[in-house]
Design goal:
Blueprint lengths: L11 E7 L4 E4 L12 H12 L4 E7 L13 E9 L1 E4 L3 E3 L3 H5 L14 E14 L2 E3 L6 E4 L2 E6 L2 E3 L10 E4 L2 E6 L2 E3 L5 E3 L4 E6 L2 E2 L5 E6 L8 E12 L3 E7 L6 E16 L1 E6 L16 E15 L3 E6 L7 E12 L7 E5 L4 E7 L5 E3 L1
Parallel strand pairs: 2-3, 4-7, 5-7, 6-8, 7-9, 7-10, 8-11, 9-12, 10-13, 11-14, 12-15, 13-16, 14-17, 15-18, 16-19, 17-19, 18-20, 19-21, 20-22, 21-23, 22-24, 23-25, 24-26, 25-27, 26-28
Antiparallel strand pairs: 1-3, 1-5
The structure holds 2-acetamido-2-deoxy-beta-D-glucopyranose (NAG) (2 copies).
InterPro entries: Glyco_hydro_28 (IPR000743), PbH1 (IPR006626), Pectin_lyas_fold (IPR012334), Pectin_lyase_fold/virulence (IPR011050)
Subcellular location: Secreted, Cell wall
GO molecular function: polygalacturonase activity
Length: 368
């Protein structure tokens, strides 16, 4: 594709196509200039492409780095209400977030202005996203909302460890999603699953730096829908703050997280390799008065191995009001990277079922 375009001068080169692409619509033919706002050119090219069965839109652009130019919009490139979309072509969505990160006040103010997400998929179904890179997003890199049957393959995400709220892939109210062969290094969660996420398979994902793979956070808002049917297999996490995590807010609204399985995960120097945290409260943004009301059940951690950068390698901190149920620990081998002694584990309001070898042993510290 795009043989007549010079990749050297174009930071973003990708193809949006229906599954059987034929006719090509290049946004350059509709007035797009490099490093300028291409909204109008893209809209024209998109309309023209939609009038033809099986068409392909080619985009070349750069991101404006000034947040003000987004006029409060919550996304840079947004795909909305599309069935049968393919996004591919090896392009880089470079969000040029360095300026925006300095203006991020979300750690201080929970009602902070939202910054633009690099790539949004809203109500996108039966679609495929492959071989793209998202770099230095101003906020989350890729966000899925109300998507169904969406495959993400060989997606690369790059941002510095200290870039705020640059979650790699976040999804909510979506189902039948697969993520395969992703490489994610960023400043916040590698992949996170918000409320209403169901039936997701994550396979062969490499994370680091960042905050790890997270269910949640859950319970912050009223009327959240259950998260269930999440399978993460074959992941490698390196130098992350957390490995695999379920996080819910204290003093929360009720909710459900169930049927969640992590298997065959390698940890390299991870601070909290396995963690359920039902007292999740970053930057003291909540009252810690009452326990979380999010019910966690049917969760397994199997074949988790490697190194922990802290001695507390396994932390299951469940809610006093709704203790975790059906938690399984099987074949876990986590050594303390610092050397000098073994790792420990904490179980609060949970009695996990155990099998196979366990290092640390289950529940070296218990609080019921
Ligand atoms: C995974 O990505 C690597 C390159 O990063 C590629 O060589 C390999 O073919 C991919 N595997 C699959 C199953 O897509
Ligand atoms: C627990 O998870 C397993 C594996 O996904 C699933 O087959 C089973 O139906 C779940 N059980 C309950 C009670 O949700």
């Amino acid at each position: 594709m795009g043989k007549n375009l010079s990749i050297a001068t174009i930071s973003l080169l990708l193809v949006l196509a229906s599954t059987k692409a034929q006719q090509v619509f290049d946004v350059k033919s509709y007035g797009a200039q490099p490093n300028a706002d291409i909204t109008q050119a893209l809209t024209k090219a998109w309309k023209a492409a939609c009038a033809v069965a099986g068409s392909k839109v080619v985009i070349s652009a750069g991101a404006p780095s000034d947040v003000a130019s987004f006029n409060g919009k919550d996304g840079w490139v947004a795909f909305e209400r599309i069935d049968g979309l393919t996004v591919s072509g090896g392009g880089v969505f470079d969000g040029e977030g360095q300026q925006a990160w300095q203006k991020n006040e979300c750690a201080k103010d929970k009602n902070c202005n939202l910054l633009p997400i690099n790539i949004r998929f809203d109500y996108v179904t039966n679609s495929k996203v492959q071989d793209i890179t998202s770099k230095d997003s101003k906020y989350f890199h890729i966000n899925l909302l109300e998507c169904k049957k969406l495959q993400l393959q060989h997606v690369t995400i790059i941002a510095p460890a200290d870039s705020p709220n640059t979650d790699g892939i976040h999804m909510g109210r979506s189902s039948q999603i697969t993520i395969t062969n992703a490489t994610i290094g960023t400043g916040d969660d590698c992949i996170s699953f918000g409320d209403g996420t169901q039936d997701v398979t994550v396979n062969q994902v490499t994370c680091g730096p960042g905050h790890g793979i997270s269910i949640g956070s859950l319970g912050r808002y009223e009327n959240e829908e259950p998260v269930s049917g999440i399978r993460v297999t074959g992941a490698t996490l390196s130098n992350t703050d957390n490995g695999v995590r379920i996080k819910t807010w204290p003093a929360s609204s009720s909710g459900v997280a169930s049927d969640i399985h992590f298997e065959d995960v390698v940890m390299n120097n991870v601070a909290n390799p396995v963690i359920i945290d039902q007292n999740y409260c970053p930057n003291s943004q909540c009252s810690n008065q009452s326990p979380s009301k999010v019910k966690i059940s049917n969760v397994s951690f199997k074949k988790i191995r490697g190194t922990s950068s802290t001695k507390e390698a396994l932390n299951l901190i469940c809610s006093k009001s709704v203790p975790c149920q059906q938690v399984v620990l099987s074949d876990i081998d986590l050594a303390y990277k610092g050397g000098g002694g073994s790792t420990t584990s904490t179980c609060t309001n949970v009695q996990p079922a155990i099998s196979g070898k366990l290092n640390p042993p289950a529940c070296t510290n218990k609080h019921y």
